[in-house]
Write a structure and sequence with these properties.
The structure is a single chain. The chain is built from 9 helices and 18 strands. It has about 375 residues and is of the alpha+beta class. The strands form 6 sheets. A 5-stranded antiparallel β-sheet has the order 1-2-3-7-4. Strands 9-8-10-16-11 form a 5-stranded antiparallel β-sheet. The chain has a two-stranded antiparallel ribbon with strand order 5-6. A hairpin with a 2-residue loop joins strand 8 and strand 9. Helix 1 crosses helix 4, helix 1 crosses helix 9 and helix 4 packs across helix 9. The N and C termini lie far apart (about 60 Å).
């Protein structure tokens, strides 16, 4: 019987409302990249900053994979004489450090917790299976390049954000501060660290946990905490385009993400209403603030002017060197096998810049939905 393919069965790698991005490429293909549509013309880009953000995603030392890509990017359209043109902007990143032969002999072995089996069922065996293909975390590199552009635009509008490792397995850092200058300082601290925690002792203890897992042929995950400050009140929509729904959609598009919380998240269920409610007050400058921030700066899907606080759960890297049980789809039998190749014992420290990037894209998209895409310009244009 002939199978009928409907629209919903076509691969969808496009997201956004006022601005849109489209990802392309595979882990072991020649290029990966992204097309961004909807950027306003005349935005000056700091290409050095884009490279600095990509460098935060690179593996370093014993806590990361030994696949080292240069991640040199090229802007091939939508950019001229240092400014965006307003037409689709395309960024391409070359893959140079592939070892595709590592995956040839395991073609029919479905790696646990990877997308091998689900990709096989959806794309009928035609998918590029090398290194996870289009499903690989490698494809988050173009997301970081997009995020670097969005972060630059947001900074000009007084919106800044940062992410730190709140928890790595059993090791825990402290939370971001509630508000004010201390929170701004904390964001600056973590944005300037490759391993984003607040103090050196936590960095060393978390790295020990990661290295120990690697020595035992295993991996670990953790929780990232993100703070966004400077978003004015009144941004977002109730229900389907709420801040939570848009940012959750983006965050769950990162391959390793298995949970997202806003504010107190699931722990709010342990509170009474009188404890969970965030009381409003006017500060000395006449600004509206809340005495707590259990709702993460969002009420009714809309920003209330307080910091937007997000926690993101990153699963342990599924590629581990221990012997595992799975299936061989060519022989239709149960098997035991060992994964080969180059893999991370943890990706949480590399994932933080990806989280920053998709959150920046989502916040910018939400602001443009409210104010229009010309809002992105440093000096907005009167078109009348």
């Amino acid at each position: 019987m002939q199978k009928i393919f409907r629209l919903g069965e076509i691969m969808q790698s496009v997201i956004g409302n006022s601005i849109k991005l489209s990802l392309f490429g595979e882990s072991h293909g020649s290029m990966i990249g992204v097309v961004i549509d909807g950027l306003a013309p005349g935005i000056k880009l700091d290409t050095k900053f884009i490279q600095e953000q990509l460098d935060k995603r690179k593996p370093k030392g014993k806590i990361s994979t030994q696949r080292h890509e240069e991640d040199d990017f090229k802007i091939v359209s939508g950019y001229f004489n240092g400014y965006t043109t307003g037409t689709p902007l395309c960024i391409m990143i070359e893959n140079k450090a592939q070892k595709s032969r590592d995956y040839e002999k395991t073609r029919d072995l479905m790696r646990p917790s990877h997308a091998d089996y689900t990709a096989e069922k959806k794309y009928l065996g035609y998918q590029d299976f090398r290194g996870g293909g289009h499903f690989s975390g490698r494809i988050t590199a173009p997301l970081v390049a997009v995020g670097a552009i969005c972060i630059q635009i947001l900074k000009e509008k007084g919106v800044v954000l940062g992410t730190h490792i709140l928890k790595c397995k059993d090791e825990r850092d402290r939370n971001f501060s509630l508000d004010g200058e201390e929170l701004k300082r904390e964001i600056e601290i973590v944005n300037n660290r490759y391993f984003p925690v607040f103090d050196d002792e936590k960095e060393e203890s978390m790295k020990r946990v990661i290295e120990e897992a690697g020595k035992n042929l295993n991996s670990v995950g953790g929780i990232l905490e993100t703070a966004v400050i400077g978003v004015p009140s009144g941004i977002g929509e109730p229900y389907f385009n709420s801040i939570e729904s848009i940012l959750s959609h983006l965050l769950f598009s990162i391959p390793a993400v298995k949970g997202v919380e806003f504010g107190a998240g699931f722990s709010i269920t342990d509170m009474l209403g009188s404890e969970a409610n965030d009381s409003f007050y006017y500060n000395e400058g006449g600004e509206v603030k809340t005495k707590s921030n259990n709702n993460g700066g969002i009420n009714g899907g809309i920003s209330n002017g307080m910091p937007i606080i997000i926690k993101t759960a990153i699963k342990p890297t599924p590629s581990i060197y221990k012997e595992q049980e799975s299936i061989d789809i060519s022989k239709h039998e149960n098997i035991k096998f060992n994964i080969e190749g180059r893999h991370d014992p943890a990706i949480i420290h590399r994932a933080r810049v990806v989280v920053d990037s998709v959150v920046a894209f989502g916040i910018l998209d939400l602001l443009c939905m409210r104010y229009g895409y010309m809002f992105m310009r440093k000096e907005e244009v009167d078109e009348n």
